[in-house]
Each structure stands twice: as C-alpha cells, then as structure tokens.
Specification:
The protein has 165 residues and is of the alpha+beta class. The chain has a single domain, classed as 2-Layer Sandwich (Peptide Methionine Sulfoxide Reductase, Chain A), CATH 3.30.1060.10. Helix content is 29%, strand content 25%. It has six helices and eight strands. Strand 4 and strand 5 form a beta hairpin. Helix 3 packs parallel to helix 4.
Length: 165
C-alpha cells in the first residue's frame, strides 16, 4: 500500500537525501508545511515570519517500510528535544514535525513518540499535527545535495551510510 507522510527535520536538503536512500521510500519532495500563508518562497519562510517548517513529503510503500520503522529512522537523524533548531540551523522553519494526512496514522505516531520519550528526560519537541498546507520548494532546493555534493548538511555521513546498507 502506498502511503504519504510529511516530516520536518531541520534543513530539508539533508533530510531529503537521507529519506531517498531508505528502501521502501518511493519518492520525496521538499517544501514548506503548516505555515500561515499559501505558496511561500524560501525568502518568505526565512525572513517574513510565515510559520512554515522546512519539510520533506515522503511517499513510501507500507508493505516494505512501515510507518513505525520510517519514524525510527527519522528519529535517528534529528535531535527530538531541540526546539526550533537542528544542527547549526535555528529558527521556527527548522523545527521538527510529523504532519500526517491519514488520521489512522496518528495512533502509530503517538505510540512511536511515547517510546521515543522513554529515552529522554527532556520533553520531546516534535510537533505532531495533521497537514494543514504544503507548498513545494523552489526547484533548486529539490535533491539539493545530489546537485551539490559538498553542500551543508546537519546529518553526518555515517547516517547516510547506515541506511544505504
């Protein structure tokens, strides 16, 4: 069964590259989610207080990769207790978030977050909400690290190698 989920994990360049390497992920697209405006630009998101999160739309085959397994992989490349910051990037657009379109996914998401919380004393800062809006990012952001292999990424190379296996 083909499923869709939207995951915000800081800068979307590395997050997209990471998800593209996971077996069972069929496609990804970077964009801006759950903000106050429709169709923002990167400049709007960075400088005009639109409230969007840099997010990766993930289409995956649930027969190969379950949502709990996908979420565990996601947790491996974020700091789940950091508020509005991942790596060297800070600001509301770099918050972590799980935005779902299928309400049946919510139980899996909540259960997964509860398990994750057991590993931390601080509260988990991952926003969990239904997807309100998503606008595709500009073309130069799509597959950015494939086009610019030396580009900045808050995810270490070891994490990319781990999911390639």
């Amino acid at each position: 069964m083909i499923k869709e989920i939207y995951l915000a994990g800081g800068c979307f360049w590395g997050t997209q590259k990471y998800f593209d390497l996971i077996k069972g992920v069929l496609s990804t697209e970077v964009g801006y989610a759950n903000g106050k405006t429709l169709h923002p630009t990167y400049e709007d998101v960075c400088h005009k207080n639109t409230g969007h999160a840099e997010t990766v739309k993930v289409i995956y085959d649930n027969a190969i990769l379950t949502l709990p397994d996908l979420l565990n992989l996601y947790y491996d490349v974020i700091d789940p207790v950091s508020v509005n910051r991942q790596g060297h990037d800070s600001g509301v657009q770099y918050r972590t978030g799980i935005y779902y379109i299928d309400s049946l996914d919510l139980e899996n998401i909540q259960s997964s977050i509860a398990e994750l919380q057991k590993q931390y004393q601080e509260a988990i800062a991952i926003e969990v909400l239904p997807l309100d809006n998503f606008s595709s990012a500009e073309e130069y952001h799509q597959k950015y690290l494939d086009k610019n292999p030396g580009g900045y990424c808050h995810i270490g190379p070891d994490k990319f190698k781990k999911v390639q296996r």
